[in-house]
Every structure is written in structure tokens, then in C-alpha cells.
Amino acid sequence: MKVGFIGLGIMGRPMAHNLMKGGHSLYLFSRSGVPQDLVGEKGIACQSPKDVAKNAEIIITMVPDTPHVEAALFGKDGVAEGLSAGQIVVDMSSISPIETKKFAAQINKLGCEYVDAPVSGGEVGAKNAALTIMVGGTEATFAKVKPIFELMGKNITLVGGNGDGQTCKVANQIIVALTIEAVGEALLFASKAGADPAKVRQALMGGFASSKILEVHGERMIKRTFNPGFRIELHQKDLNLALSGARALQISLPNTATCQELFNACAAQGGSAWDHSAMVRALEMLAKHEINQK
After folding, report:
1. How far, in Å, CA of 120 to CA of 133, rounded?
2. Active site residues
3. What are the b/e assignments for 126-149, b being 16+ CB within 10 Å?
4. Would the N or C end of the chain have less CB density within 10 A of its end CB?
5. Tens digits of pLDDT across the chain (294 residues)
């Protein structure tokens, strides 16, 4: 198929690469420029999102935040200006569920289908085509785009209608943030008490406390490898969606709020671009102790 891909950062670049490996021709656009390794037999650099939409059957956006999606779709030389009836727009960014429903309605008015399909799994999952993909859209459109998703992910679920994929992603980010905080507290406790945190992590990996966060981010905390990954500023954005949604729904998410404050503390130390596993640094500052491997 002819697939458009807009947004070629830490996540988008390997996702686009996997689509080309799957045999699809890609029409590419990124505000920072299209990486040269994606340009060739299967990858064609475009001048604008409008240019992408004019050439592709399915157009994917993978950009940082809600305003970036809106600009890519409806801004000057945006996707909407290049669409023809029958095309499919797929947003794989992590953005507001409320705005997603508005975007879908606008795309539908043009005679096109809209799918929200945010992902989880980080850079490693993107490179290994092992992402979890949470989908909002109609069953008929999902059936059309699922073969594309299968080249980028493993766990692919149609959650419900437009916006439900984004709602699922917000829920995912709540769990991830709280689990990072829990792993950080546990390894900090172990280290301060004099145990080897690496051995503690190894032991916990065989028990009920085992998790992907303990496996991947626990190792990052111990080895002090806080290059992203997934930047703290992006997780802050996702938790803002959770907390603003909670206010609208009149529910309390107290531990989500605590994790956001810990991220805020990291940002105050210049850590907005650290990997989100570096939340542990805020806990270490409170304890005046850094996790260290014996």
C-alpha cells in the first residue's frame, strides 16, 4: 500500500522503517526533516502533510502532543487540504481523547475515516515491532488498517469508538507512572538499607512483584542510563490529560498527582528530557541517597 507517515522522531522513525520492511511505499514528512536512511526505494520525502495526503491511501501521524496533531491535520498545508474521499487517517500519537473525537468528526465530514491508535512499548518496542496498539474506530476501518498495525505491534486491540484508544492510553500512562514510582521506592529502600539493588531486582523478577517496568526501568535506575527512551516531558503531558480528565469526571487520582509532582521536581532540575525512569532521581533527592550497585 501507499502509506503516509508524519512525525519521524524516536518512535516514528523505527515504526516507519518497519512498514517499509513490510513492503509498503511510504510518503514521509517530519518538521525536523526526513532522516536520510528512510529515503530510497520505499521512502519518499514530502514537502508538507498536504503532499503526504495527496499521495497516500492511509495517513499516519506520530507527533508529540494534541496541538501538533491539530497542526498536521488542519493547519496550513495540512493533511485535510490533500485528502480525497475514502482515505483513512490514523493518529498514533498520545493526545487528548476529547480533541480526538473532534478531529475524527472533522475528518469524517471530508468523507474519510479516522482511527486513533496510540501505542505503548517505547523505543525498544518500536524498533522490535512489538508495540501495544490501543485502537479507537469502527470495526470496518479497524479491519482495513490492522495489517499495517501488525507490522509495528504485537498486542493490537480495538477498544471502542473514536477517542477510546486515547482514553486507554491515558490509563496505560497512569499505570506506568505509578509502577515507575513503586520500583524507584523499592530499589531506593533496598540500596539505603545496604542490599545490592541489582540482586534485589533479580530476585524480585521471579516473584509477584515482577513487571516490565522492574525489568527495563529498574535496570536503568541501577545502571544510571537515563537517556530517553520516553522523555519525562512527554509523560508529564500524558498525566496532565489524566488529571484534567479526572477533574471533568469528578474523580480523584491522588497517586497520579504524586507522580506528576515527582516528574515536576525532575524538570526543575533540568530533567525534562531525561527518560521517565529518572523519576527515581526525585525520590533520591528526598532521601539524599543515590541507588548504587555493589
Report:
1. 7
2. 169
3. bbebebbbbbbbeeebbebbeebb
4. C
5. 999 999 999 999 999 999 999 999 999 999 999 999 999 878 999 999 999 999 999 999 999 999 999 999 999 999 999 999 999 999 999 999 999 999 999 999 999 999 999 999 988 899 999 999 999 999 999 999 999 999 999 999 999 999 999 999 999 999 999 999 999 999 999 999 999 999 999 999 999 999 999 999 999 999 999 998 899 999 999 999 999 999 999 999 999 999 999 999 999 999 999 999 999 999 999 999 999 866
